[in-house]
Amino acid sequence: MRTTNLRAWLIWLIAGLFYMFEFIHRVIVSVMIPELTEAFEVGSALLSSLSAAYFFAYALAQIPVGLLLDRYGTRILLTIACLAIAVSSFAFAYAESLAIANYCRVIIGLGSAFAFIGCLKVAATWFPAHQFAFVVGLTNLLGVVGALIGGSPTAYAVQAFGWRMIMYFAGIIGLIFTVLLWKIIRDSKNSAKHKNQTKNNNKLGTKLQTVVRNKQTWLIAIFAACLVAPIVTYSELWGVTYLAHTHALDRNLAARISSMTFIGIAIGGPTIGWLSDYFRQRTFFMGVGLIGAMLTMCLILFGPILPLWAVYLLHIWFGFFTSAMLLCFTLNSEETSSAVRATTLAFTNCVIMLGGAGLQVISGFFLEYTSHNYNISFIPLICCYVLALGCYVFIEEPPCRFAED
Asked: Closest Cα to residue 153, out of 21, 17, 31, 313?
């Protein structure tokens, strides 16, 4: 049993490190904006599509990815996904046009779509039920580490070595992870369980109908998307440029401040989750997170010029409050039956990623046509919170399933 447990942790670790690696790709464009603008000779509107291409591909792949993982397992699919990211990183490094770079980002997004769901699959397969939430929390932490690496450290590296060399290096790292995934990842040997999973895949149409007809599932998913979209647009794309412009900071310092958002998420995720479990309340803490995130975002974007320590703190609180969106996965899981739970979670993640990609494109066009007037261009971010508030009013608190394992 002890050996099996160690093996489970090793399998999860390599899958989790792959998730961390793909998260670096998610945010890496934000620290390359000046270099990419010059290299491809494009404005903000077109450049935003380069980042959004990843999110659209990632989002649209969510439900198919979940079904493929159930049918074929994590080993072969995570290995192929990582290889696709590695090859696309090399191609991106040598791209001479925005069109080629966009194609590369689409493939990177498709490959990255397997990482988080693959980690959930590993957690469900190799760990007992009472450890599942803990392992998912650790997985989210590795994603935050990836976001941090993709921020300030990568900004320094881009300035020192150039963006093409960094993408080439990312390709090499991807090849190393490809080998490790194939060597270490193993699928469940429980043939009966695999057989049942394959049988359930035949009910795709029924599952999707059950999910899309549930009003609560839509409300919760849209609420989550509206909380995540400002993070995706500000912290993962325009935040570094905005801080450098507004506060007259060098890009490395601006990247460091922006990355504090992910520190807040790392702290807030387990903290809010624990409070939610302790008080057996989901919607209350979702509401607290919504109001807190909206207030801190308004202060960051439209408040007075504050000392740097206060700007650091605001970004931490912004991430902390936004992490309440993780409760949406729990709430949607509790809202639906076990027969459609995986499909519901995949659907929720799909809506979240589509919302982030859409807001990135909208903000890019606003910046382009207002000559980088951030006060106007970032108004759509605040509109997201208004929409989230409209959804929140109609979200119901289901009976929480705190059953013993």
From this structure: 31
In this structure, what token pair is assigned to residue 123? 């957690």
Give the 3-state secondary structure of residue 337. coil
Radius of gyration of the chain measured on its C-alpha atoms: 20
Predicted TM-score (pTM) of the model is 0.75
Tokens of 217: 């599932």
**Local confidence band at 14 (pLDDT 50, 70, 90 cut-offs):** very high
Please tell me the predicted confidence (pLDDT) of residue 31: 84
Q: Residue 140, SS3?
A: helix
Is 106 within 8 Å of 57 (Cβ atoms)? yes
**Residue 58 one-letter amino acid:** Y
Summarised one tens digit per residue, pLDDT across range 22-54 is 999 988 888 888 889 888 888 777 788 887 888
Q: How many residues does the chain have?
A: 405
* Residue in 104, 62, 83, 91 with CA at minimum distance from that of residue 18: 83
Distance CA(323)–CA(282), nearest Å, equals 13
Residue 258 and residue 315 in contact, taking contact as beta carbons nearer than 8 Å? yes
Ramachandran region, residue 398 (left: φ > 0; alpha: ψ -120 to 50; beta: rest): beta
Mean pLDDT of the chain: 85
User: Rounded to whole angstroms, what are the CA distances from 13 to 127, 145, 177, 274?
Assistant: 13, 14, 12, 23
* Separation of alpha carbons 368 and 48, rounded Å: 10
Mean pLDDT of 226-230: 95
The contacts found for 128-136 with CB under 8 angstroms, 24 or more apart, are 128/405, 129/405, 130/405, 133/273, 135/12
Contact 336, 211 (CB under 8 A): yes
- Give the type of residue at 315: H
**Which pLDDT band holds residue 130 (cuts at 50, 70, 90)?**
low
What's the rounded Cα separation, in Å, for the pair 290 and 327? 12
For 43, which DSSP code?
-
How many angstroms from the chain centroid is the CA of residue 123? 18
Residue tagged 């993962």 (tokens): 236
> 243 CB contacts (<8 Å, ≥6 apart)?
249, 254, 257, 258, 311
Question: Is residue 338 predicted with pLDDT exceeding 70?
Answer: no
Question: So what's the pLDDT on residue 405?
Answer: 44
